Amino acid sequence: MNERIIDWLLRGPAWLAYAVETQLLDRDADLAAVLRSPEILGLVARLKGRDRGLPALGSGRVHYTETGKAYWDLFILADIGLSVKDAGLEEEAELVFGFQQADGTLRIPPNVQPHYYCMSAILVSSLARMGFRDDPRVAAYMNVALRDQQRGGGWDCYGDEYGSCPMDDLNLLMLLGQFEARRWDPALNGAVDCLLEHWQRGDHRYGFGVGKRFRALTYPAVKYGLLRVLDVLSLFPYAVERPAFTDMLDYVKSKAVDGRYYAEPADGAYAEFDFGQTREPSRWITFLVARLEKRAGQF
Q1: 195, 116, 49, 12: CA torsion to nearest 10
Q2: Where do the domains of the chain lie?
Q3: If pLDDT is split at 50, 70 and 90, which confidence band does 162 have?
Q4: 136: which residues sit within 8 A by CB, 6+ positions away?
């Protein structure tokens, strides 16, 4: 990525400049400015709330498919690079682990059953990124998930011996990819292949396809989307070396307009963020593509 685009990214809001500095340029950045950002203050306040935040998980009113609520608000903070401590969410994070069962799985109202890894892994992945990577409760969750891996290498909420649900695979790899040893673990290659082959074959699996909605540059890609699939796969060297990964990334890069990317479409729940509008290019989505290029050795 050329210096002109980097300079443009750094002229964005403090939270975005922080991500660019720490994740693209590998240097220190001003955390205090991030924590004063109105957008970040809004997310943290919502995460603390009893209506849509982490304290509301037990009410059954918070679903993993809904933006502007706990699952994806926490995901965004994790993606920026903030820790639970940075955001002052220590008490709220503990509430998540309050749903953990004896075997390590999570059961969260209204419909997250212990073996529904596609749902619970979103929260556990974010917490792992936000300072809980070495927490034994995260290790227990991963251990039981790995125990339930299917023969084909992926995961299936309904226990099909050879099944592989794209959302299960995606969200568990999103968690497992936070650990260096797991990134090189050949036992995960099957799940990686399932996601890559889904793109190549273009079929529908468990209701998930790779058509127009999948190919749109939407953030956060709640239901199943190209940017998040690439982001997760880019954590695994095995995936980055596959031609299908290069094909997916090239497709994304073909959408650039003068080196910048637009949200396609925007989510109104995040209208205060630049990925929540479509009129102007999105610095955040441009950053996400740059992060992919860095992981793929193209930055």
Answers
A1: -10
A2: 37-148
A3: confident
A4: none
